[in-house]
Fold this protein.
Amino acid sequence: MKLQKFFIKFLSNNKNTFRTEEDLIFRRKISQIVGCEIVNSHIYKEAFTLKEPGVKNSPSYERLEFLGDAILGSIISCYLFNAYPGKREGFLTQMKSKIVSRNNLNKIGEELGLPDLAEQKAGVSAGGNLAGNLFEALIGAIYLDLGYEVCEKTVLGRLLTPQEIAKLENKIMSYKSLLLEWAQKNKLELTYETTEEHLPNKILNFKSVIRIGSEKISNASDSSKKKAEEKAAQRAFYSLNKKENILEKSTIPIG
């Protein structure tokens, strides 16, 4: 422990040694996000390095993303356990899923501007979830650099505050699951008819039609089967909820 403190102090005292202006700008940006001075900027550099295609064992954010996912899950689980003492396991699981969902982490990562910090390389495909992946890698880097307590304080104090978490209580994450649960409870036959559509310029599209029995309830199109069905389920939900009040009759814990 003493040796670790010595090296941290040594690195901190020499943080401006042999650094380019680009390094200092990067370090400043990360420190602003974290809310305190970082020690080892090399860890954060790794957290924002994209994997180079065709290069075996290419350094990238993926290992830190793996670690950050576990650390973030631990921080959020402990917070929810203490913040909602009267809630059952199902509610806590549902809330955790909302908080660490890919959509929510992507949103946070975009708001923090994390993709702009990534080392872009020629021929590298970033992917649609880059912002969320980098957010988890950042959590992993903070944990390795500053320890669990600082990491927890950063997450709950700056990145995923209790106020932001509370906003997710009534957020519906899956209209498809909500609609299915309602149909099963009311013993209704709910079916999805999803077909491929070939649009001009060889673009593949999916069209999903939802029926209850033989009655068509809604339809929607999107670039993937999953997105088309979720969009159709959302439209069906709003249509049916006016008549049936699905939200009140559902047993899915949403708040």
